[in-house]
Amino acid sequence: MSIPQSFIQELLSRVDVVDIVGRYVQLKKGGANFMGLCPFHGEKSPSFTVSPSKQFFHCFGCGKNGNAIGFLMEHAGMGFVEAVQELANQCGLQVPQDDISPAERQRQAQQKQKAESLSDLLEKAGESYCKHLRGAPKAIEYLKKRGVSGEVCKRFGLGYAPAGWHGLASVFPEYDSPQLEEAGLVIVSEEDNRRYDRFRDRLMFPIRNVKGECIGFGGRVFGDEKPKYLNSPETPVFHKGRELYGLFEARTALRDMGYALVTEGYMDVVALAQLGFANAVATLGTACTPEHLQKLFRFTEAVVFSFDGDGAGRRAARKALDAALPLATDTRSIKFLFLPSEHDPDTFIREFGTDAFARYVGDATPLSRFLIEAASEGCDLGQTEGRARMASNARPLWSLLPDGALKRQLLSEIATLAQLNSQDLTDIWAQETARTAPIARRAPAAPVHQQAPDWDAPPSNWDNAPDWAEPSAPAQHAYQPQGSGGNWAGRKEFGRPRKPWGKKGEDWNPPQLGPRPTPVSREDQAARLLMCHMEFMEEMTHEDFDALARCNESHAPLFRWLEAQFTESGPRSWALLREQLQGAACEPLASKLMNGAHAQPEGEVDELRKELRGTLNLILVDHLKREEGKALKEIATDPTAARRYIEFQERRKKLSVIISTTS
């Protein structure tokens, strides 16, 4: 989104940086400026100044400085556009957007209003849960048993959802409001259309975004009931694949302690905060995603994943490794902490103390070592075959790393373990790639002198056909077999004319053939599946989105539009998408796909999900082939082109194997 520079200047002239910073930092007047403790690093004496005349903040301790927009980006973890919009809202200004249509601007305003309305409902529900906690002995006893103080409960806004079916009816007089269902607070039965509270008899954990707005809840049972944890469903304001529990509460601690500790559950975060590790956050019942890490890297350059030491913990760590590799730049630190299988962070600290846990964190496995361990799993490095297999396993992991010193050093380590030097290993990969590169198969062109067989031509004397032939019969259906001689259609056997086709006493009336329907392309099918089941996007990778965004000139804008809608507001129905498409450049294509043949695929959701995955794999293969071609052309001038060619081809080969085994 393009925001005019003139508007940014006007916005900064209207806001007061002292007022903006003062909402987060306690400031005291000190001469012409205001002073306070820096929110970006731990300090005991104030070195953080805010200048009302220059509309600027500066810390003499850590060097952080900037204007009101920069402060929101640094302290609240907002993006530039988000920070500008936040300040504009406070000033009552409308952010101009030169690159969108009035219809799109109106749609965005409606979405924003809707999100604010849903967040208000969730906030009100959270206040009610907090009040109920005071009169819930069972919940209070559980928290005391876990060592959670009242102060920490207040900080995280913990509450209690009563056991009744309609506890929220006393909070919301309009209990039948559709917004309560849309916010995930109320469930409507499909059988009898009755309403009831989603969360009942559970300890409630409010989930907040980086601005502190309530966007959902997690509820924990007190016994052995299933599910143990219940999350809010996906809503226009809540997407569990992109949110981290405790991130809002941990912002300051992330900077003070210098790293983020990613755990596996709500109670881990709360208990760790109680025990002195307020920098803990947790994923919401999902594997760690690149979106999670991107949010964390707004606040810190170091992340430590904490997992159990059992098999499940190792598998979760392996998924986290895949998500972390593309973001592992040379300036970032990513580590993996494996606790003994009988402990989680809470129990470990209570048994061994905070110092022991801090040492465990300090000794956590670096990303580079964990990558080597993952590649070496099941490989005997004492044997040639084992070393070769390790190098093969390491290749797809190594290729995910961004180019830099870390990636090049790891290449050297992999080569050393394989008992090769880096150049030899690269050459071997390149030679193998070139040797196995598929040669385009072209059908030989037909010789110029080759003529069509005689029977492809209509009979030259069709005009002299017997009386039983229909004058209007299409000529392409009449032909004269080679060697029949003369007027075959007019030959007589046993004194009567012989028809060239059909049974005795029947005329052959071929059906009128209309134009052949346009085949359904992979892009058509992918677009239809995503427009009908937008929730499938939650399982797509960055590679999937990138391939769709660059597939072809006709479909790419539609895929980019769908990705933007999903990122902004989550999954939506086709009925809602159809309204939002009005005025968009990709509306004609979307309408054509959803109203034409094969529109709106039917079938079991799991089968459609598999169909989409298969279609995406085929699109990815085409995308990788194009990238291979580009890399081949650049090999002579770009030293990195050969490596990229190898990476693209290896990825394509693996996809081809997957396609062949699932088709």
Structure description:
The chain is α+β, with helices and mostly antiparallel strands. 46% of the residues lie in helices and 11% in strands. It is built from 25 helices and 19 strands. The strands form five sheets. The protein has a six-stranded mixed beta sheet with strand order 12-14-13-15-16-17, sandwiched between helices. It has a five-stranded antiparallel beta sheet with strand order 1-2-3-4-5. It is globular, with a radius of gyration of 33 Å. The two termini are 41 Å apart. Mean pLDDT is 81; it is low at 439-495, 501-505 and 513-518.
Fold topology:
Elements: H1 5-14, H2 17-22, E1 28-30, E2 33-36, E3 48-51, E4 56-59, E5 65-66, H3 68-75, H4 80-91, H5 102-134, H6 137-145, H7 150-156, E6 159-161, H8 178-182, E7 186-188, E8 195-197, E9 202-208, E10 214-220, E11 229-231, E12 244-245, H9 247-257, E13 260-263, H10 266-274, E14 280-283, H11 290-296, E15 302-308, H12 311-324, E16 333-339, H13 345-352, H14 354-362, E17 365-366, H15 367-376, H16 384-400, H17 405-417, H18 422-436, E18 492-493, E19 496-497, H19 522-532, H20 542-549, H21 556-569, H22 574-580, H23 587-595, H24 605-634, H25 641-662
Parallel strand pairs: 13-14, 13-15, 15-16
Antiparallel strand pairs: 1-2, 2-3, 3-4, 4-5, 6-9, 7-8, 9-10, 10-11, 12-14, 16-17, 18-19
Helix pairs in contact: 3-4, 13-14, 15-16, 16-17, 18-25, 19-24, 20-24, 24-25
